[in-house]
Amino acid sequence: MVPGEENQLVPKEIENAAEEPRVLCIIQDTTNSKTVNERITLNLPASTPVRKLFEDVANKAPLDHTSDKSLLDANFEPGKKNFLHLTDKDGEQPQILLEDSSAGEDSVHDRFIGPLPREGSGGSTSDYVSQSYSYSSILNKSETGYVGLVNQAMTCYLNSLLQTLFMTPEFRNALYKWEFEESEEDPVTSIPYQLQRLFVLLQTSKKRAIETTDVTRSFGWDSSEAWQQHDVQELCRVMFDALEQKWKQTEQADLINELYQGKLKDYVRCLECGYEGWRIDTYLDIPLVIRPYGSSQAFASVEEALHAFIQPEILDGPNQYFCERCKKKCDARKGLRFLHFPYLLTLQLKRFDFDYTTMHRIKLNDRMTFPEELDMSTFIDVEDEKSPQTESCTDSGAENEGSCHSDQMSNDFSNDDGVDEGICLETNSGTEKISKSGLEKNSLIYELFSVMVHSGSAAGGHYYACIKSFSDEQWYSFNDQHVSRITQEDIKKTHGGSSGSRGYYSSAFASSTNAYMLIYRLKDPARNAKFLEVDEYPEHIKNLVQKERELEEQEKRQREIERNTCKIKLFCLHPTKQVMMENKLEVHKDKTLKEAVEMAYKMMDLEEVIPLDCCRLVKYDEFHDYLERSYEGEEDTPMGLLLGGVKSTYMFDLLLETRKPDQVFQSYKPGEVMVKVHVVDLKAESVAAPITVRAYLNQTVTEFKQLISKAIHLPAETMRIVLERCYNDLRLLSVSSKTLKAEGFFRSNKVFVESSETLDYQMAFADSHLWKLLDRHANTIRLFVLLPEQSPVSYSKRTAYQKAGGDSGNVDDDCERVKGPVGSLKSVEAILEESTEKLKSLSLQQQQDGDNGDSSKSTETSDFENIESPLNERDSSASVDNRELEQHIQTSDPENFQSEERSDSDVNNDRSTSSVDSDILSSSHSSDTLCNADNAQIPLANGLDSHSITSSRRTKANEGKKETWDTAEEDSGTDSEYDESGKSRGEMQYMYFKAEPYAADEGSGEGHKWLMVHVDKRITLAAFKQHLEPFVGVLSSHFKVFRVYASNQEFESVRLNETLSSFSDDNKITIRLGRALKKGEYRVKVYQLLVNEQEPCKFLLDAVFAKGMTVRQSKEELIPQLREQCGLELSIDRFRLRKKTWKNPGTVFLDYHIYEEDINISSNWEVFLEVLDGVEKMKSMSQLAVLSRRWKPSEMKLDPFQEVVLESSSVDELREKLSEISGIPLDDIEFAKGRGTFPCDISVLDIHQDLDWNPKVSTLNVWPLYICDDGAVIFYRDKTEELMELTDEQRNELMKKESSRLQKTGHRVTYSPRKEKALKIYLDGAPNKDLTQD
């Protein structure tokens, strides 16, 4: 076995062979992030000196260890793994040893600290992770010694330029020589000072990367600028302009011009007389074209592009030049000549272009080589500048400050005074004499030292810089925070080049990586500078270095504190407000528990509420609401020890527990369970607030009763304990010998305790009063109901209705409902009196017959719940005018109170619904139970008559739930509590309902009233609406229920046979007057289809369609509504209905189609109404109706839509029909299917080539068409018709019109580039002053 294999064991045979123990050493290098996961494995004899252990590492890293101890004496353990860590010494990162400069390139990688290749050993794949491992190595600078820059979001272009300037000795040294005067300027807005700070940090920081936010803040940028990507060349010019402004009247005032500015001559020479007009321009960079205009072949190299840049053009024909000397238009030569090259030469490769055919911005990824050394002497002007023919200077010597914008594609060299990109500058004009004395060709050799690379497309991408260090002549990649060493081969990869066709627009949207900006430095030993050494720094830079070092050390100390800080959730139940407060406790691991309590005490603002000695911290589980343990006697224990160390997350929380001064804290021991005990009073029918006791899982029920008896002072002999294991799961602890663990107790538990001498104690638990009370307590929720606006008359009647109900003494007034015709002929008070007397008699009968167990008599007690209203019978009319609801409320016939027995679901047959409820209520076997009428008033447990139901109760769906996904027609009583014989399938359920007025919030509107309703959530929506009838003042069939969600969104609840189980505490409900739907009815939204309008979909009205109704019948009912509500006068044969899917027209509905048989219909259904120009052509479902639109390329326009009705799905028939309506010969017809949502809008600039014209299919229902339904859009054209030739002006104008048209219709424009924000640097840090330029 070879040491260092995966198992890393030391085999016994090796030990025997060596005749001494051997030590397995595994070394981990944590000095940098790249090697932190790699290992060096060494298997050495135990007598090996420690210095020998370092031999394989010391020659790679400057380690200082000369101990002569043996490994055994140094406490290494033979036969076991000995893990070692190569770490920083005194916080300083190891420095690379200097090697012989003559070493070849192959030895470069030997300078790095890392795993060492060793014969017979390999890298370890152990899963071991050191417990002492620190993430600080990630923060250490790269092994290259250079520091990266953090990308704020999209500031890679800025990082590339800043690193290039930093690596330019002349720029960095000049910047260091400038001294900031704090008395004259704010350091925050000083661009040179922030650049100075950044460069100092780049040179001295130990971090891997530093932030650039201070620099961008000095630019006047906010955080939004970080999300704007700009052009690096544009940034270069704008930043240089800003620096020039800041450096005015300083030693660095002319620095940018000295380093980066060159001069060129823009000339025009008459070819007849030799007269030449010229002017001098300055430039900061030279823009080089990648491809000549209209060419598909790119320039092969930078040299070719430079030659093309100065290549003159002949002005002839209509472009002739007016010669001042000849006094006529003559042929002329126009061009550029370089007069002076700057010390630092910047070349911009113009890879971004614009496609005038597709109106797209594109990137040219063609290959363009550039040399490491560039000889510019061949491009300097050698013509006789002193020629007598050269007599005119057209610009009087004015110089254009900034970049040269001229190339062989442009003839405009006028000064761009109207547009300033970046900052507002005043151009100073002056005359400068051009002298070429002393200029020698062989002195114009430039060496490449920076390549700014763009990776991506014209739509966006990423910048990074490849820079050569003048210190060691090595190339490095500065890619935001990552700095790495690269080779010359990596530079060559940035030349570009794309595979495939080299057509002009072949790479318009291709993503590739290539050079975008090149910076060369003149090779001149007299001028080539070296970076300033530390001892050469000006005094102010030395002070700045010291200041930044202190700040970094302070940040490091703060980071160390953060690493040793325990962060854990802290809770506290406020002693007076009784509100659970939550915060985050951040405490150092060495702080004691006593100090942490004091911190938590102040954090929770309890100084004025309770003394400090009345508080303590305990271990807490917030999810289970469980107190795990207390920390008695550990006040001086460090928090790191108590919490188990510093962790990112903890599996528990802390609770700041409080007590009253006269109380004593209870001890919480690990292993105990917490029990919240609620005392139940059967006589008062109330459930008290909980009392907390702690028990052990191995205690028996008898022992537990004794424990509770001591806590609440109730006799244990008659005590009944009910455990609520989960929602609606009540378990009576009846076996005394069982342990709490066997009964299902967990960390935190909830029990109900009752101890009385009543007969209820002897009843079966499921039949007992206790069970009913607890069941009601668990299922009651609180809702807030907003009642509709009422007229004064109707509101007074409703008030009287409620008052009358409140006078009944024996029956819970809130369980009462009046179901029957109510009207203005009989007072509401009289109705209530009759219903109250009836309910009293029913209650008395229930008490007399309650013990015989006769189910038929038990159902008789619910007569009051199921009184039928004649108005609830199916109304033949499709709608009821809501205005009638305020005109009369019919009175019920007292004889109808005993008409018949019916379940809730029977009532549901006559209850109607509205639109579908988006939150689908759940239905359960107990959902259709009845309101309890066999008892007197039943106050809700635990004082719930007020507000004691808390919203913290976790809801859970009832077992046996049945979800109904259909609509109103399913409310047919299939989930009724009664079978066919009318007998009850289960015992009576408590359907609690109590409503009381509630003070509404401000802004609820005049005339609106709120109710606070406590209701059993197992009640059906139908029964709930019936309960609300007295408060609304109309029958439940004449108002609708809307559930209010977040952001005040309202959705109608319509499923009458489903329960309120999806509602939770404090949900809001809005009641609106209006006719609700009856069984089998649907509310349908009708839209008009206008195929040739700008907005083809127009809402008309809401209608009601019923199951079994024919399309013709629905059209007949629509006609008067269309006339009254929309002003449309239509005959039944002049319009059609058709399917609507989003905005797409679909299947045409024929008159004989029947809803729910031929046409599937659902709640909130939408349908198109289409007005016909003539007789309906669709007679059969076998026909196919498509919408055709002719494209006329010679006119660049689309004709209006025309419908084509096909007898089959044949492509030949489609061609024939299109030929028939257009007059185009059959053989010349070409068609294509429209894309997207109707009307499938597309730009006329794109339609000719973007659509899939003339698909090779014989039928329409196959790929790629898939036209199987009515409403498909077909574009067609005459293939012999030529496409109109457009000028650039016509194309631009048409593009604007099309963009405007497509945006108005809400359809996607083919090309919609992100609007670019102008790049600006604000010298005063106040961008608001220049808003007009954005």
Features:
disordered N terminus; eight-stranded mixed β-sheet; 28 helices; 1334 residues; alpha+beta
Write a short abstract of this structure.
The protein has 1334 residues and is of the alpha+beta class. The chain is built from 28 helices and 48 strands.
* Estimated structural class: alpha+beta
Strand content: 15-25%
- Distance between the first and last residues' Cα: 72 Å
How would you sum up the major sheet? 8 strands, mixed
The strand count comes to 48
Tally the helices: 28
Shape field: flat
- Helical coverage, percent range: 10-25%
Using the CA coordinates, give the radius of gyration: 44 Å
Uncertain parts: 1-18, 59-64, 95-138, 384-441, 499-511, 791-833, 838-990, 1308-1314, 1329-1334
What integer is the average pLDDT?
74
Descriptive report:
- The strands form 11 sheets. Strands 8, 13, 16, 18, 19, 20, 21 and 22 form an 8-stranded mixed beta sheet that branches. Strands 28, 29, 30, 31, 32 and 33 form a 6-stranded mixed beta sheet that branches.
- Strand 10 (321-323) and strand 11 (328-330) form a beta hairpin.
- It contains 28 helices and 48 strands.
- The N terminus and C terminus are likely disordered.
- Helix 7 packs across helix 13 (539-563) and helix 19 (792-806) packs parallel to helix 20 (828-849).
- The chain is an alpha+beta fold and 1334 residues long.
Topology:
Elements: H1 12-18, E1 22-29, E2 39-45, H2 50-53, H3 55-58, E3 81-86, H4 136-139, E4 148-149, H5 156-166, H6 169-177, H7 191-204, E5 209-210, H8 213-218, H9 232-246, H10 255-260, E6 262-270, E7 276-283, E8 286-289, H11 302-310, E9 313-315, E10 321-323, E11 328-330, E12 332-340, E13 344-350, E14 352-355, E15 360-363, E16 373-375, E17 390-393, E18 445-457, E19 460-468, E20 475-479, E21 482-486, H12 488-492, E22 512-522, H13 539-563, E23 565-573, E24 580-588, H14 593-603, E25 615-621, E26 626-630, H15 639-642, E27 653-658, E28 672-681, E29 686-687, E30 691-696, H16 701-712, E31 719-726, E32 729-732, H17 740-743, E33 748-755, H18 769-779, E34 780-787, H19 792-806, H20 828-849, H21 855-860, H22 883-887, H23 904-910, E35 993-998, E36 1009-1016, H24 1021-1032, E37 1039-1044, E38 1050-1053, E39 1067-1073, E40 1081-1089, E41 1097-1106, H25 1111-1126, E42 1135-1141, E43 1144-1149, E44 1165-1171, E45 1184-1192, E46 1197-1206, H26 1211-1222, E47 1229-1233, H27 1247-1250, E48 1273-1278, H28 1288-1304
Parallel strand pairs: 1-3, 4-5, 7-17, 8-13, 23-27, 28-33, 34-39, 40-44, 45-48
Antiparallel strand pairs: 1-2, 6-7, 6-12, 9-12, 10-11, 13-22, 14-15, 16-18, 18-19, 18-22, 19-20, 20-21, 23-24, 25-26, 25-27, 28-29, 28-30, 31-32, 31-33, 34-36, 35-36, 37-38, 37-39, 40-41, 42-43, 42-44, 45-46, 47-48
Helix pairs in contact: 7-13, 19-20
